[in-house]
Each structure stands twice: as C-alpha cells, then as structure tokens.
Amino acid sequence: MYSVYKSHKFVLGLVLLLGITTHTVSAKECSSLQLKQTEIEGETYLSRIRLSNGLMLESEIKKYTSGLSTRTLRTGLIGGDELRTLNGSKLYYLEPGEHSVTVELWKKDDLEKYYTDFMRGTDSPKSPERLSTFRLRVEDNNAYQVVFSLDGQVTLSAEKSLCVLDNNYILGAITSKVDKIKSSEKLPPELEKRLRVVMNKLFDNVQPLGLINSEVSQYFGAVKDDNYKDKDGGVRLLSVLPFSLAHKLGLLSGDVIVSYGDPAYSNLTELLTALDYKKEMKLEVLRNSSLVALNMVYEPVVVPQVTYGRDKNDIQKTLIEGVEFDHELQFEYERLMLEITEYYRNKNYKGRLNIVRDNTLNEQFGLIGTLDKISGSKYSIVVDEVLPHSAAKAIGLKVGDIIVSVNDKVMNTQYITHINETLKNLAVGEEYTIAIERQGKSIALTEKFTASAFLSFNLIIELDSVDTYYANLASIKSVNKDVKDFTQLLRNSQGNRSSPTSSRISGKGPSSPWQSSNKRSGKESKSSGK
Amino acid sequence: MQGNKVESADLLTPADEVHVREITDNEDERVKMSALIQSSKMSAVSVPNEINWLKIQGRIQPIIAAPHPVKEPTVVPFYIKSFAVAASTIFLAMGWLVFSNYQLHNQLEQVLLTNQQLESKLINPKVTTYEQVFFVQKLNDIDKKLQNISSLEQKVTLLQKRSVLILELYKTQQGVSDVFSI
To answer: Which residues in chain B have their CB less than 8 angstroms from residue A335's CB?
Structure first.
C-alpha cells in the first residue's frame, strides 16, 4: 500500500489536483501564512501542511522522471524547497476567506529522515507526532503565524502586512466559498431532535467551538468470520450492521460471499476501492445453500465538513480548532450528518448551509430506558442513556440505574403509561424524588425540577464536501490509471478531521471495508502529498 | 408312542411285554425292543469298593485343599502411570473439546440464522429515529468487539447479545419496543 503513495504518478495526481483548481489571484487580495518551527523540551518540531482548502502554494519549476519519461512541472509543496517552508523561512499564501488546514507536527530529525527514505524509495518507519486541524478566517493583507503544540493547541498571531504576489508563481487550491451560506429550513422532527441532542453532546463532551473535517466513511458495515474455512475461498459474514452499505446491498448475517461480480476482484477491499462513483456493485452469496445475486449502485458515504459554535460570533472567529471525540459520539454524529446532508441535497441545497437554533426547552425528561417487568403488574425502568442538559442528568440518574418509583408512585401497569406526563408536568422548582437501585443499593434521588434544555448553536455544513470528494477522486484517478486503491489514497491525502491520538497516527495498516469507524485512520502518517 | 414307553422299561406292564413279543410286522424292530427291555432290567449302578473310594479321595483332596498360587503384583513405574493418566485425561479432554466445539459450531450456525432472519425483517428507514440510532450504535460496538476476538465461545456470546439488540431494533420499527425515551 505504501508504495502506492510514493509513486510519481500519485505525486503528479496531487499536483494536478492543485493545478485544476488554480484560479486567478489578485496580488491585492492575499495574506501570508507562516508555520513556525517549535521547540518543545529541547526537541525541534516542524509542521507540514497536509490538506488545505483555499491555500496557495508558491511554485517552482521542477523536473520529475517516471520510467523513461521526464516531465517538467510547476510544483508547490512537492518541490524540494519544502523544508524551508516548514521551518518558517518561506511563506504559504492565502486568499481572503475561510480555509481549513490540516497539519502534521513532526520531530525535525524524523521528518528529514522521512524525506531521505522517500527519495531513496524505501519505506520509512518515521511518522508525525500528531495531526492538528484548524479553520482560519483570512482577511486581506495580513501575515499570520501559527505555532502548534504537542497537545494539539494552535496558537495564532496576525499582523497587517502588505501581501504581494506574482501570479505566475502561485498554485491555487480548492477555493473557499465564504459567501454562499444559506439558512436552512426546518428538519423533520426526528432529525431535529437528534441534531439538538448531538449538539448538546458536542458542547458538553467535546468543546464549545470547533471544526470537524470532512471524512470518507469507509466502513462497509460487515464483519467477516476469519475462522471460516471454505474450499472455494468464500467469506462468511458474522454480522451486517443495519442500515449500513452492506445492509442496503442486501447482505445478511451468515451469508458466504462467493463472487465479487468480476474475476479480477478476489476480495471486497479490492472491489470497493476499484469501483467508480455510482457504478453498479455486484456480489454473489451463498445463503442457506442457495446462490443469491445482489447488486446496488455504489456510493461511498462522505461526511461533510462542519464548523459549529454557540452563536454567530463564535463561528466568525479567526481561528477555530479541529475537534476530536470518542467513537460512540463519532458514530452518532456521522449518521446524523449523513442523513442531514442527504435531506438537504434532495431538496437541491448546495454550497454552505447555516443551521441556527436558539435555546429551547426540551419537553422530555431526558433519558432512554428499557421497561422491565418485575412481577405481576410491577415494572421498573432500566436507564440506558442520560441526555446532557436534561432533568434526568440534573437529578443524578446514571446509566444502569433501575428506577423503582417516582414520587413514591410505584411503576405499575397503570402508572407506567403516565410517567412521562408526570415528569413533564413538574413545575420548575418543584421538589421531586426518584427511587432507584444502583449496584444493588436502594437510593432516593431528590432534586428541585429544572426543565431539560436544548442549547443554542450555529452550525455550518459544507454540503459540497461530497462533490469535492468525487471531483478530486476523478482527477486523481485520471492520472493514476495503474493505481488501484484510490479511495484510500484520496482519503489519506485529505488528512484527518481532527487531532487524533498518536495511536491513530501510527495506525497499523491501511483501512479495509471490514474495519469499523474507529479504525479508519489507517496509515495516515505515510500518506502525505509527497 | 411305543418307543417312549419302551425307554421306561419299569413302566411296562406284563401286557405291554406280551405285545412287544408279539410284534410280527417288523422283526428287526421287535428284536431291538426286546434287547432294550432286557438290558434295562439287567443294568445296575456300579459302586466302587471302600478302598478304591478312599484312594480316589486321597488323590483329589490335596488338589482341592492346595492354595492357589498368588501372582506377585507387578510394580508399574511412576512415569508409566503418569503417562497413562495423562493419556487418559488428554483422550477425555480431546473428546470433550471435540464435542463442545461441535456444540459451539452448531450454536454459531443457529445464532447466525436467527440474526439473518431478524435482519431481513428490518426496513431501511428514510429518517432514523433516536431510539433506532441508539440500537445501531450498540450493534456497531458489538461489531467492533467481534473483529477483535477469535474465540468461538465469545463469538457466540456476542452474536447472541446481537440477536437481542436486533430484535429490539425490529420492535422499535413495529412500535412495540420495551425501549423508550421520556
């Protein structure tokens, strides 16, 4: 896999990717960006840009040899001058607008070794210490300086400075679309509720202001049985996740995949990474001793880029840092964003979508529970989830608690249907008691009622992330005809949405469609745009 | 009938004896019958005299009274005993393992079939409800665990938990789930 990233064709692909999005930049409308070399505990760290939208790169003429042919190209970061850019003695240029930038933070020695290995054509064991993502709101004629720390903090300083460019030496990149923000119409009730819950969780568990980068979800939604042996090489599925791509295709648990529609493909990874957007995907499976043919139009899911904050002022800040969250919230967030994107795209929304909501009361008490029949007409409620900023959280309920009674009313057949009304109709400030069992102990929780709330938020969703992804994929494919794993390649070239942990950076291998969402970072450290 | 009676010569009445003597249609038979009757009357149980009897007893008595030779128990070396015990244990363990593995394979097939049937009943929703996402998330967690285990027993356990969750997910689509949000 790694050899793919080192191929000159891939390099050319990235150059082209930058080249095709080049646009005219007026010398009067620019700012500069300087990534500062950082000293941390005596060690020198350099930062390397891995993904940018709207970033311009100073170019130079460089010759590349691939096989017998030599080509002359205008290059940006690809040029040999990269280290000078990295250590801050050279500048990147930016057009006014909003830019998302993902950078790698490297130990200087490691990065130099990595380059040396790369030029020799050998695998490098070196990888960056971490990734950081930030969104930068750029105004004309400013000089921005960025310093990163190992804990993911981004420090920005800016000062007015005349920006002069010679257009002949500038490569553009994907342009930002700052002026195309549209207000959204209301979402269907279920989506609305999920959005408000997820926003509460982001504010509560992550950070109040953040950028969440676009990402291609490679999870196909099936787990294969590695212990299954089949003389014909069939692959048995242990599980198929409901509502996933695999489920939409028609796969079910226990199916044995016996054919991938084309003898050229011997496994699902090969098939998925070779398939073009909206091409038909065909599989044959053995189900209960019968051969079943399955097919669907394949569309990898692209989670859009999102910027969020509590209000408009938040969103307009110059610097917004990338966020990182646990896999459970990530799963919930991704499903939500995919459904919201699909909903608005079906209504012909394009560009940047701005969803704004005020603080509102959440009419619900704020928990998900399972009804458990104890005996006869007696019931209890097992708490499965407590929502943030809810009355349930305020009184102190926790996952695993067993609710036995509310205000001394035992959960019986009559009462259980009215409990929601009872809890909803409590007056603000009214004292109420919930008797629970927690780890075998009986506890009475008493609290003055405070209504559940949905926090206000300002959210910008880049609906075009999907189109951008496929445009980039197509352009890279067109010049990399002998490279198979394009989806993986592009995803790695795009960087990561957040500032992942070191374990993600040093992932053990490339992603496969079998892997779940928390493993998708793959071999990111070796996938730079070199 | 005649023959039977002749075998018990003491039971022949004088009239029977006369009848046998007067048989004329088969001379051979008559001669044999007459000889048989005569023989039965003459034979008597011969009893050995006292001296011979004592001699016979004298020969038999030592044989009966003599103690049977007791075989000395063979001393089996400890390592052989250990080996035998180990071999038996391994044999039993292997048997048990094969049997339990067979059972687990059956359980795996069964739970996969159950899950397959449940999954086939699920309808892909246009908008997923909060409760449905809750279950899909839990199913995703199980998928992750499934990817990291190789033990058949653990797989079966996880897949059985999965069955319960898919059933609940199905129930939410049918509006009869025990899981609710308040």
So the answer is: 128, 133, 136
Evaluate if residue A376 carries a pLDDT over 50.
yes
- The minimum CA-CA distance between A212 and chain B, rounded to whole Å, is 20
Of A226, A242, A327, the CB nearest to B169: A242
* pLDDT digit string, tens, across residues B92-147: 888 888 888 888 889 999 999 999 999 999 988 878 888 888 899 899 999 989 98
Helix, strand, coil tally for chain A in percent (to 5): 25, 35, 40
Short-list B58, B24, B137, CA closest to A384: B137
3-class SS of residue A131: strand
Length of chain B (residues): 182
* Residue with tokens 């899950």, as numbered in its chain: B115
Which of B118, B123, B130 to mutate: most A Cβ within 10 Å?
B130
ipTM of the complex: 0.73
Q: Output DSSP code: residue A204.
A: I
Assigned token pair, A373: 């029949």
Collect all residues with Cβ–Cβ distance below 8 Å to A409 and sequence separation of at least 6: A415, A422
Q: Angle CA(A333)–CA(A218)–CA(A198) in degrees, nearest 5? A: 0
Q: How many CB atoms lie within 10 A of CB B158?
A: 21
Interface test with B, best of A192, A217, A223 (most B CBs within 10 A): A223
- List all residues 6 or more positions away from B51 whose beta carbon is below 8 Å from its beta carbon: none
Rounded-to-integer distance, Cα A325 and Cα A215, Å:
14
Q: What is the dihedral of CA A497, A498, A502, A506, to 10 degrees?
A: 0
Four-residue CA torsion sign, A233, A239, A241, A243: positive
Angle between helices A465-479 and A8-20 (to 10 degrees): 130
Q: What is the pTM of this model?
A: 0.71
